[in-house]
Amino acid sequence: MEFEHIFDDLEITTDPFAVCELRGACDLGLGRDASATLHYILAGEGEIRLRSQAPLKVSRGTLVLIPALQSHALHSFGVSGDPVPDCKPAAINLARLMATAECGDKGQLIALCAHVDVGLRGVADIIDLIREPLVENVSSPSSMRSALQALLYEISNPGLGSRAMIRALLTQCMIEMLRRRLAVADNALHWMAALADQTVWSALRTMLDKPGDRHTVESLADSVSMSRAAFAKRFADAYGSGPMELLRDLRMRRAGALLRDTDLPVKRIAEMVGFTSRSAFSRTFEAKTGQPPRAFRMSLQEN
Known about the structure:
By secondary structure, the protein is α+β, with helices and mostly antiparallel strands. It has two domains: 4-189, Jelly Rolls; 197-302, Homeodomain-like (Arc Repressor Mutant, subunit A, Orthogonal Bundle), CATH 1.10.10.60. The protein is built from eleven helices and ten strands.
């Protein structure tokens, strides 16, 4: 399938927010974020632990994209690796998140963390179509390996324009990750096939633009002039799941962003994402994130 025109239309932005440093064999909980989160491992070995999923092994040069609302933690194996220069995140307005094992800092894992947004043809938040983590490892000379060296330099020798350079390098790595994962038909990118189908894209755009509307399979099928059965099959073939399953996920991710970015009451947020019952919304949100809405908002305020 040809994806070149899709890449031409993608609008990818990255916002680096922290450098995470784990000294010794230890964990650093990162909780849930209302945005998709990108982790680039600058040094060390370890894994990213996710709720209800197998851990993802990471090492120097690993790039991992975690979908929104997925609770996760960084774990360092505490093994010694290639020495890296001292990071100076404060000089580029990045938080410094630390974890240290009681036994000391035998070895360390360092990760650059960023929020990611992806838009397409005027529609924001298509990053929310990603349902599984994406993982790419740099094991041979490549543009990503060159970017890793450049990132290390900017973080350890910050100067004029360093933050902008870090954003540009991370965006480059994000594009490289997408095309590499597409080249090996990664199931986590099944959704990009839906972008190439104009009929399915029209329905996706409707849900992305207005997740709080009272969509049904019938109404979405009508919007693209198809029968319910034909639309449901075409959508599932292109996207990998039914439209209502996707709509539920989009609503929860939009709710997470509203809980993070506003002080609106939970009841109002429930209405804005298509729920007539606050209790039904809270049950669905907790099933998705492991936390009720109020606890989720409080955890974001504590970070």
